[in-house]
Amino acid sequence: QSGARRVYRGNLSQSLCDIPDRAESLLDLFGQIGAGKGPRLEVSVRRNSYFEVDRSRLRLEASEHDSSEALLTLWETPDEQFALQDTYQKALGASDDIEAVLNGPNDTLLVASLGLGSRALSLTELSGKPLVRKRQVVTGLACSYHSCHASLSAFEAAGMIVLVPVVSGEDCGAKCTQFADGELWTLTEQGFHLGGELPDTDEHMGGLNYESSSSSTRLRWVDGDGIPPLEILVEHSESGEDSASRSVFGFDTGAQAYSKREVLGALPPAEVEALERACGGELTAF
């Protein structure tokens, strides 16, 4: 954070150049590194297995002799992350994986990033020239799958920003399954506010003895009471089912969030048609 730079030098038990197909090999190397006149640190370099969170990602950890506490942890940066990190890492104040950057009002930027190690998803508002971190919050979403990415949708409404962050990923065993989890947030002059959790979705591959299955979640504006701001209709559909489950999220002025949730039961066709007619544009779907 001070801008100081420290260079570590040392040796590993084996040269990376001697490992064939090192991009895919499960590395497990050891050695020592040091910086200047400071103590030498024991270092390990390993690659996550295919069935771990962040599969195939390299991690370097350094600690004092006979200590299990890492004093230094470095994570490999995926190729697709370099451009965003070079542009926004300094303003973000961390080396997290920057997953999405959107333009906000008044020349601000809205950033979704996955923390290194914790893999928790954070939302950050950047502003100014040069860019600095204005506000930040850690969401309840995190990567817990073998591979993960995050997305962010944002909409201006009644003087605030409605945010829908989503973490999607893949777990693989005999077959691979796709998952997605989302939350409903608002950003006002008072900061970030959590509204409601959204129904998670999944997509299972089929097999010889069973069919594939999938689910989806869709968010749309709806005017339920004629008073701004609009409400948000959340529809969750499962493959093989004739009807979707529906909830309406209303805005709570005290909480400054879409936290008022009303579950809609099995509606008659006429009421479904009326609800469809009352709907405005789609916010997002996952």
Strand composition percent: over 45%
Largest sheet, in brief, is: 10 strands, antiparallel
Q: What pattern of helices and strands is seen along the backbone?
A: EEEEEHEEEEEEEEEEEEEHE
Number of helices: 2
Could you give the count of β-strands?
Answer: 19
What coarse outline follows from CA principal-axis ratios?
Answer: flat
* Computed Rg: 23 Å
Query: Uncertain regions: pLDDT < 50 for 5+ in a row?
Result: none
Given helix and strand content, the structural type is mainly beta
How is this structure best described in words?
Helices cover 7% and strands 52% of the residues. It has 286 residues and is mainly β. Strands 10, 11, 12, 13, 14, 15, 16, 17, 18 and 19 form a ten-stranded antiparallel sheet that branches. The protein has a five-stranded antiparallel sheet with strand order 1-2-3-4-5, with no helix packed on it.
Q: Topology of this protein?
A:
Layout: E1 9-12, E2 28-34, E3 41-47, E4 58-63, E5 72-75, H1 82-92, E6 97-103, E7 109-114, E8 120-127, E9 132-142, E10 147-157, E11 160-172, E12 176-188, E13 191-197, E14 201-204, E15 213-222, E16 231-238, E17 245-252, E18 257-264, H2 269-278, E19 279-285
What are the main properties of this structure?
5-stranded antiparallel beta sheet, 286 residues, single chain, 10-stranded antiparallel beta sheet, mainly beta, 2 helices, flat
Summarize the model shown:
The chain has 286 residues and is mostly beta strands.
